[in-house]
Amino acid sequence: MNRAAASLTLALAITAGCSSQSSRLTDTNPPQGDTVRIAFQDGISPAPAYNGTRDALLKDGPIWEIRNGNFGTIASDTLGSVELPDTPYERRYIIKMDLSYVVGCLRVLEARLILRIDQGTTGALTLNAHEVVVPALITGSWPEGSGTLASGVSWHAVDGVTPWDTEGGDYLPEILDYVTVGTDTVATLSLPTDLVHEWIVQPASNHGLIIRASGTVDESYRLVHTREAAVPAYRPRLELEYLKSG
Description:
Blueprint: H1 3-13, H2 21-26, E1 35-40, E2 53-59, H3 64-67, E3 76-83, E4 88-97, E5 105-118, E6 125-131, E7 177-181, E8 186-190, H4 193-201, E9 209-213, E10 220-225, E11 237-244
Antiparallel strand pairs: 1-11, 2-4, 3-4, 3-10, 4-9, 5-8, 5-10, 5-11, 6-7, 6-9
């Protein structure tokens, strides 16, 4: 869905109890007693049974098995660029979360994605967040996959078979937020509230985010923990604050 269509969708959603971004900007004093805070993290929140995160690493490489390999079942993996053997190849992280636990939303007030990371190469690394789009011929979204060749989302393909329009995953050029990490153990990215609101009222529009490093000419990476991390607290976490309707 393009941004113009998304804006129309949000405008129509007002009748269902959710406002548009423009009306949110004019209301500078929302009633604080009607705000709700909720977090999404597999195995922890909103309930221990929550299993709504889907994520994978998209890996460029010198051989087909890497470019079309599915890396959706690994507990942690490289994000940035890795030399194989002397040429740097990029790794990107794709993630989306089921937000169906949110009901009675008037508007989203704050949203942030928190990733647990470990050290990789020395030096700082800047991570950019982009909104994912899928090719028009795809029905639905990208599957996390089973971790084998052509079994799910990859650098080359949306679903193991259908190619992205541009290898590495299709995304809008706008940088939603960025964070520079040095010795940090977490990376926090703020997300546009209107985008997250759209994901809530129109779940089919939610194709998630691609997180990619800027400046991937030389080997430079961090390890990012995924939803398969053995320690639940290391798994990706999306925190929201929203205003209730009614």
